[in-house]
Specification:
The chain is mainly β and 654 residues long. The chain folds into 6 domains: 30 residues, no CATH class; 117 residues, Immunoglobulin-like; 100 residues, Immunoglobulins (Immunoglobulin-like, Sandwich); 78 residues; 102 residues, Immunoglobulin-like; 96 residues, Lipocalin (Beta Barrel). Helices cover 4% and strands 51% of the residues. It is built from 2 helices and 48 strands. The strands form 10 sheets. Strands 40-41-42-43-44-45-46-48 form an 8-stranded antiparallel barrel. Strands 5-12-11-7-9 form a 5-stranded mixed beta sheet, with no helix packed on it.
Length: 654
């Protein structure tokens, strides 16, 4: 009998490893003080046992006998015992065999089922296959082989075998990094993983063939449980520093030795660098502030709705790293941003950020000069923060909204509407109001004729539209017009409308006059048929008709539409007897069209307003040599004229 000096467990003579702690007994074992007890009876030497779940009366119907009560197996290999099963009953029985206990996961029975006739027996094999991993520690495991009867459920039997799993040692080592570089002592980390099924005791050391290094390993020895890991710090130090010259590369090894004598050798390389020169004396501290911020411009102009930018350059003149925050202060801060808003500056370095100014295009954004501060704040030294200033000038803008209500007027000679104008800009605006129509058939009276609106304000004016002539046609006349709003900055707005002159609805006058004319016509026909004409003079000589005109007159040029009017009409030749006609911009009612000669001194063709309205334009040279134009609006699907506008005189532009 021997005793493990590590844990105090008693072991039989001849055992190699301690059953409790797994220590190697040749190193840790010592003879026991009391005389050794006689060795225990080996279960395998005892005769086979019969175990039955039934009482001895009449004998059990099922008997199971194992070939051995204990077995030893190496992890990663297999061992086997046989079990003989006898059916002592009087009926055919089906018997199921299974293994129970801690070893059941890696123990199997082949075959797992037996069909036995009465008073017949069969043999099954029990296989033990413990895996070679740290998950199955070395030691003894109980395995119960159970035989269950289908015909006699209460007659099931169980026999037991003890499985001893042998110990094995397996460990892995790594060294990181394996290449060390430095002028003095440099460290690496040794990592050990125990893949065996017993604890392992490891001693650590280092060596190099040139004896150029000394090794310091902490700790110098490791104990690692099955499946566990452990680390040690390996410090390699050159014995002789390298004062100058190129680097030297030397090999070294780290030795890991287990208690059973197995060893792992880890190769490494040490690149020895020359000892660095002493650092130069510190530079004198810079004078002046450690941080300096400079803007690229001291003033900038921006329109509402647009954007402008300035750059801010920050210089770190100090000796410390600064984390800086940039922000905008002052009345412009609400619509200003800095990108990036944070900077990290090393000593004696600089960086640039951009400050963007984006004033909104609203009436509340008044035009003015806004002094704005750009602050650079240091997290490390609050007193080192700096501020620079820029003046942001926001310009004025004009934005008008107009409305005419009602926009469709109806009346014999005149009708009234209301014009509303809203100033959506950011500055006061002076407005002049007027009216215009393409036919020059209307007169306008607007009160007041001028408005002054502050930002965000709305003004109104009364608009009276009057026709120059009465409607004497049989259909309603629709005359387009617009109310013009001219701002002091030169921009213009317009409110479009339509003035409808209804056709006259009165009764016809003098019906008796038309009846009298009809009677006179009938009487003249009767007299002509009653009295034949007298002798007639001989016919005069026939006069040959004149040759047809081969081309119309030349009407190309630039003309005012009526004397005293500022509207300019341009007629341009584009081919034989063909012209284009358009109103030159800026125009009140811009249109474009084409003219073709239709005979005599007349030209006609289609035209289109900028709003999309289609009409017919006619140009005629009068006997006095002047040109006149007339606009005919088309309304129905057949192209019949709906409204013929009074002619306008075309006055050449001198």
């Amino acid at each position: 009998m021997i005793i493990c000096t590590k844990c105090g467990q008693q072991a039989d003579q001849g055992e190699t490893f301690c059953r409790r702690c797994g220590a190697f007994l040749e190193w840790t074992g010592a003879p026991a003080t009391p005389p050794e007890a006689p060795p225990p009876v080996v279960p395998a030497a005892t005769p086979p046992r019969r175990v039955s779940a039934e009482p001895e009366l009449g004998g059990p119907p099922v008997v199971a006998t194992l070939s051995a009560s204990s077995v030893r197996v190496e992890p990663g290999s297999q061992a086997r015992v046989t079990v003989e099963v006898r059916n002592r009953g009087r009926t055919v029985d089906q018997l199921a065999l299974e293994v129970r206990g801690p070893a059941a996961a890696w123990v199997s029975v082949e075959p797992a089922r037996l069909n036995l006739m009465p008073d017949m027996s069969a043999v099954a094999t029990v296989l033990f296959r413990p895996p070679r991993t740290s998950g199955v520690p070395a030691g003894g495991y109980q395995a119960d082989v159970a035989v269950s009867s289908r015909e006699h459920p209460d007659a099931s039997v169980v026999d037991r075998v003890v499985v001893e799993v042998a110990p094995f040692i397996a460990f892995e080592t790594t060294l990181a990094p394996s290449i060390l570089r430095g002028a003095a002592a440099t460290a690496a980390r040794l990592h050990v993983t125990n893949g065996g099924n017993v604890p392992v005791e490891l001693s650590l050391g280092g060596e190099d063939p040139e004896m150029a290094f000394s090794f310091g390993i902490d700790p110098p020895a490791l104990r690692v449980d099955p499946g566990g890991t452990a680390d040690a710090l390996v410090v390699v130090k050159p014995r002789d520093p390298l004062q100058s010259g190129p680097e030297r590369t030397r090999p070294f090894r780290v030795l890991v030795t287990a208690g059973d004598g197995s060893r792992r050798v880890l190769d490494g390389t040490f690149v020895q660098a020359p000892v660095p020169a002493p650092p130069p004396p510190p530079e004198p501290a810079p004078t002046g502030p450690p941080l300096v911020a400079t803007l690229s411009a001291s003033a900038v102009r921006v329109e509402p709705g647009g954007q402008a930018s300035v750059a801010v350059e920050v210089l770190n003149r100090g000796r410390t790293v600064h984390q800086l925050s940039l922000e905008v202060r002052g009345p412009a801060a609400a619509w200003s941003t800095v990108d990036p808003a944070r900077l990290n500056l090393m000593p004696d370095t600089r960086a640039v950020a951009t400050v963007l100014f984006r004033p909104p295009r609203t009436a509340g954004m008044r035009p003015d000069r806004y002094p704005t501060d750009v602050a650079v704040i240091s997290r490390e030294q609050a007193k080192a923060s700096v501020i620079d200033r820029v003046v942001v000038e926001v310009g004025p803008f004009v934005a008008l909204e107009t409305g005419l209500a009602p926009s469709v007027l109806r009346g014999g000679r005149e009708a009234t509407s209301k014009l509303s104008v809203s100033n959506r800009g950011n500055a006061p605006v002076e407005l002049a109001l007027g009216g215009d129509d393409p036919e020059a058939a209307l007169q306008f009276r607007i009160s007041p004729s001028k408005l002054r609106l502050n930002p965000g304000a709305t003004g109104e004016a009364k608009v009276v539209v009057k026709a120059r002539k009465e409607n004497r046609s049989r259909a309603d006349l629709a005359r387009p017009f617009r109310v013009l709003v001219a701002a002091s900055d030169g921009s213009r707005q317009a409110g479009d409308g339509t003035f409808i002159q209804p056709a006259p609805r009165g009764r016809r006058r003098w019906p008796w006059a038309f009846a009298l004319l009809g009677l006179l016509g009938v009487a003249a026909l009767v007299v002509a048929n009653t009295y034949p004409p007298g002798p007639q003079p001989p016919p005069a000589a026939t006069i040959a008709p004149a040759a047809s005109v081969a081309a119309g007159p030349d009407i190309g040029g630039r003309y005012y539409l009526d004397p005293g009017n500022s509207r300019i009409i341009v007629i341009t030749p584009v081919g034989e007897n063909r012209y284009t006609i358009e109103e030159q911009l800026p125009a009140s009612w811009p249109f474009k069209g084409t003219l073709e000669w239709v005979g005599g001194d007349r030209f006609a063709g289609p035209a289109t307003l900028a709003s999309g309205t289609k009409f017919r334009v006619e140009v005629e040279r009068r006997p006095d040599g002047r040109l006149a134009t007339q606009f005919v609006y088309i309304s129905d699907d057949q192209g019949n004229p709906m409204n013929r506008i009074d002619p306008h005189e075309l006055v050449p532009v001198s």
